[in-house]
Amino acid sequence: MTTLTTAPAGPSTRAGTPPRRRGGPRPWLYLLPSAAVLVPLLGYPVYMLGLLSVFDYRQAQVSGGEPTRFIGLANYAALAGDGRFWSVLGQTVAFAAALVVATLAVGAALAVVLTRAARVPRLLLSLAAMAAWAAPAVTGSTVWMFLFDADLGLVNQVLGLDGFNWFYDKWVAFGIVGATVVWHSFPFVMVTLYAGIQAIPASVLEAAALDGASAWHAFWRVMVPMLRPLITIVVIQSIIWDFKIFTQVYVMTSGGGIAGQNTVLNVYAYQTAFGSSEYGLGSAIGVVMTLILLAVTLLYLRALYRGGEKL
Amino acid sequence: MKMLNRAIAGAALLALAACAPSTAPSASGGDDKSGTLRVWLFDEPNRAPKEKVVGEAIKEFTAANPGVTVEVSYIPTTPARHEKFKGAFNDPASAPDVAEYGNTDLAEYAAAGGFADLNEDLRAWPEGRDIGTDLLRSATVDGKVYGLPWYIGIRALYYRTDVFGELKLKPPTSLKELTSTARTIREKRPDLYGVAVGGEYTFGALPFVWSFGGDLEKLDGAGSREGVKAYTDLLADDNCPPQACAGLTGGRTVELFAGGKAAMGILGNFNRSAVDAGPAAGKYAVVPLPGAEPGSIAPAFAGGNNLGVMKSSRHRSLAVKFLELLGGKTYQTKMYEAMGNLPTLTSAREELAAKEAFLKPFLDTVAAGTRFVPVDPAWVKIDNQKVIPTMLQKVATKQATVEQATTEAAAAVKAAFGGS
Q1: Looking at the complex, does the CB of residue B7 fall below 8 Å from at least one CB of chain A?
Q2: Does one domain contain both A27 and A129?
Q3: Cβ separation of B111 and A64 shorter than 8 Å?
Q4: What per-residue string of b and e applies to B286-309 under the rule 16 or more CB within 10 Å gives b?
Q5: CB contact under 8 A, B23 and A256
Q6: Is there a contact between A52 and A283 (Cβ–Cβ < 8 Å)?
């Protein structure tokens, strides 16, 4: 339990403050169990990630007997000077933003549908959603890729577009990949929000209906405010998932599409860094991604507090 | 796949000491004369005949070396092989003594310090002198020979004899003729592609570049540009429309030809069974891929597999002996009979050429000189970053001119070499 020695904060919190207020050891004691799990499992890798990112660290250093060399921020400088990194980053942010909006829209709409549907359709919809959720990303992507195959795909056969390549145009390709990602991730949003809606007392909705609120108004004015904590969690989860998207892009566009036009940050990191055993550079990209995600999440939480809402 | 990133980073982390990145001890092996010799060979879609030949070799080997057993593992050729090899380099206890590896992976493995230098051993071995210098170069890094070229695969031009007969065409004798023949076919038989080419088919495009005097290391040179232009001119509506062909890998062009959708294709000797299993069976012939000059042969890429001895092997001389047996003339010939693998020993190839008419165009291509990708970790980077496919696809989709695309690619190649 090395965490014991590091856990208590500095002496300032101990000296002179009443024991029942923020300073005492008790809050730290309560944190211990989760800290014991989180520090070794999360803290150490993040620390190593940061450490590796300031070293010249390639396969030759791992097993070839070459000495590792501290190079400061050179890996970060290389990234900052790489025009492609910036364009891929911009593309990733835009794509992730679109995915978050689409996932939430689809998930929320279907959650409302679930609450209103009769038993059998509700069961069918839940089953379909669970199947999509349960499908491993590689499998799901491959199936979607087959559906949209130029020569043998079901979509082309039904539409009579024999030989039309859906992955040729950048935006069409992004659209199909995006649809696959939404298909994979909407069930989580749907189930979470459905559970939230079920927990809203029927009397509240009834009262709204009596006051003459339409379904649309009831959703926006009653359900959404009451579901805000859940929506916050779902949005943050979606941002993190969609920003880190890898499998669908890698599988469906065979590693970034024609001339790399569909590359996102994670695929780029894999190809430039890990695929080429540039562990130092790869770690730098990992650190940048972590920082961006942290910043986005913090900004979002802060905006919510500003709005006066308690979580 | 995110998991894969994590796994790789995790593997890197595990190799570290507590506070600063450190390196694994570079183990040097031993020279035990008995015990178990561990061998890694690549798995194949149809492994039985390979296993049979290897089994015969093991029988012969253990008979000659009492007290020795040989244990063979078949490892997959998927990209996971990189991790498997890296793992073996980092942990000698789980490493084999002898391993088969793809020659394009060599530079990476050499930089990792995984394989032993066999220069002396191969020189002392009479059959070893029978390997052409072109081929030996594909196993050499910085003057050190990290393996014995075991077999090679060579690509040549397959064409449909029925289509050529119907349209009264002759097999092309220059790259210019190849283009015009392909366009004629597409014009008269719009249901067919003239020659199946792909934007991701690096080893289909490189012979064009080499034939015009270009090279990977100077992609913005005049020769390279001519080669890139000649290849990307084929990725057009009058031969193989970019909508369908810009994203194709070499494997997909094989499917197109084998499936009867293309009148010509740049396929390897190892693709014969795939073609024979499709509608093009019995209706095709093979000629060497012509070069820029009329009557010449475009330099082909000498892809293939090597046999190497691990640096950490505890049975060095036994391992070399086994490698020389499996890579010797008898077993190279047997491997051809079993798997269609082209031998690397000149004498074995000549004997086969006399027997097998099918092999003639491929062997003529070898005789005209083969080329190889740079044996440098930079190649792995260039390959992983898809420098060549991106260049071809940008031109084919008109996102860039030949000049712009080659300049950009040359810069990427330069960066890859500079950074390693």
Answers
A1: no
A2: no
A3: yes
A4: bbbbbbbeeeebbbbbbbbbbbbb
A5: no
A6: yes
Please give the residue that has the higher pLDDT: either B82 or B162.
Answer: B162
What pLDDT shows up at residue A65? 67
Q: What is chain B's mean pLDDT, rounded?
A: 87
Q: Which domain holds residue A37?
A: 3-41
Q: Which residues in chain B have Cβ-Cβ distances shorter than 8 Å to A276?
A: 377, 380-381, 384-385
What is the distance between the alpha carbons of residues A308 and B313, in angstroms, rounded to a whole number?
Answer: 68
- Kindly report, residue by residue over A169-206, the tens digit of the pLDDT: 899 999 999 999 999 999 999 999 999 999 988 898 88
Amino acid identity for residue A32 in this structure: L
Number of domains in chain A: 2
What is the distance between the alpha carbons of residues A64 and B209, in angstroms, rounded to a whole number? Answer: 34
Contact B377 A279 (CB under 8 A): no
Q: Do the domain assignments include residue A265?
A: yes
Domains of chain B plus CATH, in order, are 29-153+302-371 (3.40.190.10), 155-300+377-418 (3.40.190.10)
Residue in A136, A137, A115 with CA at minimum distance from that of residue A125: A115
Helix (H) or strand (E) holding B363: helix B360-367
Asked whether the beta carbons of residue A58 and residue B420 sit closer than 8 angstroms, the reply is yes
Tokens 């080659």 — which residue?
B406
Q: Does A164 map to a domain?
A: yes
d(CA B172, CA A7): 77
pLDDT, tens digit (0-9, with 9 covering 90-100), for B167-181: 999 999 999 999 999
**pTM for the full predicted model:** 0.78
Is residue A260 domain-shared with residue A177, that is, in the same domain?
A: yes
Residues in chain A within 8 Å Cβ distance of B108:
59, 277
How confident is the model at residue B41, as a pLDDT? Answer: 93
Note whether residue A65 is domain-resident: no
The answer to whether the complex's ipTM is over 0.85 is no
A264-285 residue pLDDT tens: 999 888 887 777 778 888 889 9
pLDDT at residue A311, as a whole number: 52
